[in-house]
C-alpha cells in the first residue's frame, strides 16, 4: 500500500480536525476518523478501525492525564468498569475481524446515527447530585477540620467520592450504585469500541449518570479515563492479527494530539452549540454514506 | 491523610500518562521522519509479535511508538496496583490485577 505525499498530509490534517473537534465538543475522534478513512481515503474498514483505536488511545491518554490531575475522574470506579469494557473490547475486536466489511459498515452507520441523535438532544442526562449540608464546601474523607482540596477525591475501598464544583464552590458528594448495570452497559460499550474504533462514551456516560447516580462531570471524566484501556484490549487483537499499518496510524495519531491541544486552547472562544449543530449534520451525512456502502451502493471517492 | 495519598496517586498516574504519550509521539514522529527521508512511502502491515523482524528502521520506530502508546494505559493500571497496595486497598488491587490479566489475554487471543 503506497501512500502519496498528499495522502500523508491529508491523514495528518484529518487527525488535527478530529482532535480539535473532539476537544471542543467532547467526542472521541473515532466517529470522525473511521468514516473519513473509509469514505474519503477508500481504506478497508478493518484498517480504519485499527488506526482509529490508536487515535482513541492517544486522545484518552492526553485527556485522561488532565482529568486525573483535576481529581474529577474516579479511578476506582473506572478500574471496576474497565474489567467489563476490556472483556467487551476483546469480544468486539474478534467479532469485527470475523464479519464482512459491509456488515461492519452497517453497524457503524447505525451507531453514527444514534450518536447524531444523542448529540442533537444535548447533554441533559444529568444525575441528581447530593450536596453537603448548607451547600458549603466541607471536609474531604479523612481530612476532618481541614479545608477541602480543589478538584475531587475518592474514598479508598469504595465507589464513593466528592468534588468541589469549580463554578459554585459547592461540595458535591456521590456514591456509585448498581455496579452490575454499569458493568453490563460498559461491556456493550467496550464491544462497540472494539468493533468500530470509537470511544463508547456515548453509552458509558449515560449509564453512569442515569443508572449509577454519578454526577455528569465525574462520569465524563471517568469515561475518558477508561477509554484508553478499553481501546488497547481490542487494538492488541487488531495489531497481533496484522490489520495495523503504522505509517497510516502515525500521522493521524500525531495530528489528533496536536488538534486536541489546539482545541482545548480555543474552547473558550468557540460556540459549542454551533459546533454541535455542525457535528449533527456531518454525522447524519456520514451515517447515510456508510449505510449506502453497507448496501453495496458505490458512492465513489 | 487519605486526601494527601490520593493526591500522590493522581500525580503519579498523570505523570505516567503524559510521559508515555510524549515518548510514543516522539517515536512516531522519528519513524515518520526516517521513513520519509528514505523516500519509502509504503505502508507495511506490522504485526505485534513480529516487531524486530525484517522491518526497516522507520517501520520499527513507528511500531515502537504504537507499542509504547498501547503500553501507557497498561502501565497506568500497574502503577495503581502498586499505589493501592501501599495504601492497603486490597479490593481494588485485585480489580486492577484482573484488568491486567484481561489485557494480557487480549494479546494472547490476538496472537492465537
Quick take:
The complex is a heterodimer of chains A (301) and B (112). Chain A has 301 residues and is mainly α. Chain A has helices at residues 5-25, 30-40, 45-70, 75-98, 101-121, 179-196, 201-211, 216-240, 246-266, 272-294, and strands at residues 130-131, 152-154, 160-164, 171-175.
**Major sheet of chain A: order of its strands?**
1-4-3-2
* Helix-and-strand structural type of chain B: mainly alpha
- What order do the SSEs of chain A take from the amino end to the carboxyl end, as H and E? HHHHHEEEEHHHHH
Low-confidence stretches of chain B: none
How many DSSP helices of chain B?
Answer: 3
| Unreliable residue stretches of chain A | 123-149
Shape of chain A: globular
Number of strands of chain A: 4
Helix content of chain B: over 70%
Could you explain how this protein is built, in words?
The complex is a heterodimer of chains A (301) and B (112). Chain A has helices at residues 5-25, 30-40, 45-70, 75-98, 101-121, 179-196, 201-211, 216-240, 246-266, 272-294, and strands at residues 130-131, 152-154, 160-164, 171-175. Chain A is built from ten helices and four strands, in the order αααααββββααααα. In chain A, α1 (5-25) packs parallel to α9, α3 (45-70) runs parallel beside α9 (246-266) and α4 crosses α6. In chain A, strands 1-4-3-2 form a four-stranded antiparallel β-sheet, with helices on one face. Chain B has one domain (2-111). In chain B, α1 packs antiparallel against α2 (57-86) and α2 packs antiparallel against α3. The longest helix of chain B has 36 residues, at 2-37. Chain B is elongated.
List the topology elements.
The complex is a heterodimer of chains A (301) and B (112).
Chain A: H1 5-25, H2 30-40, H3 45-70, H4 75-98, H5 101-121, E1 130-131, E2 152-154, E3 160-164, E4 171-175, H6 179-196, H7 201-211, H8 216-240, H9 246-266, H10 272-294
Antiparallel strand pairs in A: 1-4, 2-3, 3-4
Chain B: H1 2-37, H2 57-86, H3 90-111
Amino acid at each position: 500500500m503506497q501512500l502519496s505525499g498528499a495522502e500523508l498530509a491529508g491523514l495528518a490534517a484529518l487527525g488535527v480536525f478530529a482532535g480539535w473537534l473532539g476537544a471542543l465538543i467532547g467526542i472521541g475522534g473515532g466517529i470522525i476518523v473511521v468514516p473519513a478513512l473509509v469514505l474519503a481515503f477508500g481504506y478497508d474498514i478493518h484498517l480504519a478501525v485499527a488506526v482509529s483505536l490508536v487515535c482513541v488511545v492517544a486522545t484518552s491518554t492526553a485527556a485522561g492525564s488532565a482529568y486525573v490531575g483535576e481529581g474529577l475522574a474516579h479511578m476506582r470506579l473506572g478500574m471496576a468498569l474497565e474489567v467489563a469494557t476490556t472483556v467487551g473490547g476483546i469480544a468486539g475486536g474478534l467479532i469485527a475481524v470475523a464479519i464482512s466489511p459491509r456488515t461492519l459498515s452497517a453497524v457503524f452507520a447505525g451507531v453514527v446515527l444514534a450518536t447524531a441523535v444523542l448529540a442533537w438532544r444535548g447533554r441533559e442526562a444529568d444525575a441528581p447530585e447530593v450536596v453537603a449540608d448548607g451547600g458549603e464546601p466541607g471536609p474531604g474523607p479523612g481530612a476532618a477540620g481541614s479545608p477541602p482540596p480543589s478538584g475531587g477525591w475518592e474514598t479508598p475501598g469504595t465507589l464513593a467520592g466528592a468534588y468541589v464544583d469549580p463554578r459554585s464552590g459547592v461540595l458535591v458528594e456521590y456514591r456509585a450504585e448498581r455496579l452490575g448495570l454499569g458493568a453490563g452497559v460498559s461491556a456493550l460499550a467496550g464491544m462497540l469500541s472494539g468493533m468500530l474504533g470509537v470511544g463508547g462514551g456515548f453509552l458509558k456516560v449515560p449509564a453512569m449518570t442515569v443508572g449509577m447516580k454519578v454526577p455528569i462531570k465525574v462520569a465524563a471524566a471517568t469515561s475518558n479515563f477508561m477509554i484508553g484501556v478499553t481501546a488497547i484490549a481490542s487494538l492488541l487483537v487488531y495489531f497481533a492479527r496484522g490489520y495495523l499499518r503504522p505509517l497510516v496510524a502515525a500521522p493521524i495519531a500525531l495530528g489528533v494530539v496536536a488538534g486536541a491541544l489546539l482545541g482545548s486552547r480555543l474552547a473558550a472562544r468557540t460556540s459549542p452549540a454551533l459546533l454541535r449543530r455542525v457535528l449533527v449534520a456531518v454525522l447524519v451525512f456520514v451515517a447515510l454514506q456508510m449505510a449506502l456502502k453497507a448496501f453495496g451502493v458505490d458512492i465513489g471517492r | 491523610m487519605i486526601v494527601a495519598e490520593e493526591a500522590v496517586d493522581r500525580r503519579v498516574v498523570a505523570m505516567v500518562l503524559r510521559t508515555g504519550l510524549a515518548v510514543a509521539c516522539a517515536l512516531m514522529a522519528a519513524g515518520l521522519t526516517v521513513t520519509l527521508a528514505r523516500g519509502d512511502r509504503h505502508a507495511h502491515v506490522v504485526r505485534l509479535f513480529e516487531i524486530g523482524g525484517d522491518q526497516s528502521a522507520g517501520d520499527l520506530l513507528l511500531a515502537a511508538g504504537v507499542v509504547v502508546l498501547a503500553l501507557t494505559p497498561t502501565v497506568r493500571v500497574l502503577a495503581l496496583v502498586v499505589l493501592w497496595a501501599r495504601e492497603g486497598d486490597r479490593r481494588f488491587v485485585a480489580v486492577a490485577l484482573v484488568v491486567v490479566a484481561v489485557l494480557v489475554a487480549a494479546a494472547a487471543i490476538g496472537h492465537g
